[in-house]
Amino acid sequence: MIQLSEEITKIKGGVSSPKGFEAKGVHCGLRYSKKDLGAIISEAPAVSAAVYTQSHFQAAPLKVTQASLKKEGVLQAVIVNSAIANACTGDQGLKDAYEMRDGFASQLGIEPELVAVSSTGVIGELLDMKKIQAGIEQLGQAPSVSGAFEEAILTTDTVTKQTCYELVIGGDIITIGGAAKGSGMIHPNMATMLGFVTTDAAVEEQALKNALREITDVSFNQITVDGETSTNDMVLVMANGCAGNDCLTEQHPDWPAFKKGLKLVCEDLAKDIARDGEGATKLIEARVEGAKNNLEANIIAKKIVGSSLVKTAVYGTDANWGRIIGAIGHSAASVTAEQVEVFLGGQCLFKHNEPQPFSETDAKEYLSGDEITIAVRLQEGSGSGRAWGCDLTYDYIKINASYRT
Amino acid sequence: MIQLSEEITKIKGGVSSPKGFEAKGVHCGLRYSKKDLGAIISEAPAVSAAVYTQSHFQAAPLKVTQASLKKEGVLQAVIVNSAIANACTGDQGLKDAYEMRDGFASQLGIEPELVAVSSTGVIGELLDMKKIQAGIEQLGQAPSVSGAFEEAILTTDTVTKQTCYELVIGGDIITIGGAAKGSGMIHPNMATMLGFVTTDAAVEEQALKNALREITDVSFNQITVDGETSTNDMVLVMANGCAGNDCLTEQHPDWPAFKKGLKLVCEDLAKDIARDGEGATKLIEARVEGAKNNLEANIIAKKIVGSSLVKTAVYGTDANWGRIIGAIGHSAASVTAEQVEVFLGGQCLFKHNEPQPFSETDAKEYLSGDEITIAVRLQEGSGSGRAWGCDLTYDYIKINASYRT
């Protein structure tokens, strides 16, 4: 338990921690032996919001989830499979995604539009619907076990990703939990990043939508492993109101506290994904201050963590500030060479458009850690931003150059 | 000698092939034993144009070249060193670049503004001006030997890069030669891509400027090795008129032929750079047809060759069309999933938003070659474009993760 401020506390837990939520995972046979079908179920319909991939090739399950959410903006369950992304699968793929939704809804005895669908795995292959149907029956009997859902949604990930926070809203304790999968922003053959957030807070729909969009931009959208976007990316938040609080709106005095909690959950999951990037050994955080505005700060931060040369330098524990300058110099943001300052682990490496003397030994030791922060001051304005990535290693090549199996 | 059309013939040669140009290279001691200082010299002042890096951290020699060109738009020589980029070197760096220009001008007995300066190598280190001065004296006595200039400008490149074409303009034979260096679009620690083009054609200044900018956009700007732009990138073209042709303007009937020649030279050099990308074993060309316009076609083509996952798939000889879809899907251009067709080595892999049956064996054999073409049809309009890159291999990590030496 980590006390972050008067209002917000990090607790052990995940998507099934908020009141009224359960989460399950089973093995239905899409993968050889690992769990491959999971679900989050709320005891009451939950006000929900989602953000989807911007890819032109949006996968079938995302279309079905959009159709469900369009009805009333509430969901009671989400069903997720791994192994097969059900992307680039034409009309049959769309039919299958609807069948997956309707089958699970019927099993739960609820309206189909109360169910969202999500898939992750290989692109261009159809789901084995017999296995999915059998899996849906299994899900009905499966107990809500901690970690089973998180396991069922993994593909090339090496660890499960969950987080949970508690905060007090008008005297009521509310909980926000999250789960995610993803080992890169893009693996078009292993498509890709999913995030699920649950909360027992009562939240007004439009406020939840706005908050999710705003927070996604500074959390999930600020991570990069290999620079692109998959066909299946989705972040879904469900708020079932079981905490009994007064419904949160953007005018509620505790709205900033709730948003802060939601942001912490999304940020934790985003960082976990970057840290677990394919082949990665280190999490890299770029912090940019003094940009013209926050947007430009975020663009530069993402340029830094997205640079193959910065990533390989961090892997090689090389305090190669020239590569950081390269990444900053290349961005469309306002940058004045003479005003830029670059810091690594507290040491200033570059200032007044000239290299600064620094201890290479200290820098090398700092780069040997598993969390690296690169800080940049631009002195253009008051914008700040952060982004997260990982180092680029031989294992990234190994994972991605080996033939599909 | 390759006859391309009635007007244009590819010949053996380089920057010293056009009449009135000589090119030299010497070892002045910035590198341990390899040539590290070179120059192109014209017997007459040449109408010249240049394009420069868009980086916010433009290196000192580029500022000096801009100052020279600003005077009258003519140059008679360019001096280039490798090993030290003279970038991020503050006031002293700028002073050194001027000294390099003025020293060489005085050695040649011409006005300083007739000399351009270019550097490539490590960022953030000052030039050893004693060595440069001694090198300038050596250049005075050095003979014009084929290949010496091309060698002197290399850094991590594994091969020299030159090309040459002949064409007939109003009855006169004119020659266009080119040399380049660069093993990646960016190596901020090895900054970076330089291109030099010479021609004995007489060309009007504004027409030459316009043509260089237009052609750079579809040649040098359409290659990527690791996705970024260095502090020292520059392409310079010098036209000395020694062929004796009527001065070429945009209205001249042979202007399109000259532009075609200039484009062939730039494209050859650009492809040579992509092919020699750090760690690369293959050249990848992406051809996009049927885009809304040429700009969008170029954007998508560059997305494809820039994708780490496409690059690793090509290295692994894996016909992983899902990664091509990922790269296309991610672009801001107009794309309709149902209309997209993806081809590899003549086989259609993807169509009607569904995978197409294809021979994996044939695809694997095709990918085992050293020039790979990925073709995409969008059916949105009549725009077409191309881009070039290389595969991403273990050696890229090895080269870039090893500590600076």
TrEMBL record, chains A, B:
It catalyses: N(2)-acetyl-L-ornithine + L-glutamate = N-acetyl-L-glutamate + L-ornithine; L-glutamate + acetyl-CoA = N-acetyl-L-glutamate + CoA + H(+). GO terms for molecular function: L-glutamate N-acetyltransferase activity; L-glutamate N-acetyltransferase activity, acting on acetyl-L-ornithine as donor. It is found in: Cytoplasm. Substrate binds at T155, K181, T192, E278, N400, T405. Keywords: Acyltransferase, Amino-acid biosynthesis, Arginine biosynthesis, Autocatalytic cleavage, Cytoplasm, Multifunctional enzyme, Transferase. SUPFAM superfamilies: DmpA/ArgJ-like. Pfam families: ArgJ. One of its GO terms (biological process) is L-arginine biosynthetic process. The record marks T120, G121 as: Involved in the stabilization of negative charge on the oxyanion by the formation of the oxyanion hole. The keyword Transferase applies. It comes from the Bacteria. CDD domains: OAT. Heterotetramer of two alpha and two beta chains. PANTHER family: ARGININE BIOSYNTHESIS BIFUNCTIONAL PROTEIN ARGJ (PTHR23100), ARGININE BIOSYNTHESIS BIFUNCTIONAL PROTEIN ARGJ, MITOCHONDRIAL (PTHR23100:SF0). Catalyzes two activities which are involved in the cyclic version of arginine biosynthesis: the synthesis of N-acetylglutamate from glutamate and acetyl-CoA as the acetyl donor, and of ornithine by transacetylation between N(2)-acetylornithine and glutamate. Belongs to the ArgJ family. This is Arginine biosynthesis bifunctional protein ArgJ. It comes from Bacillus velezensis (strain DSM 23117 / BGSC 10A6 / LMG 26770 / FZB42). The gene is argJ.
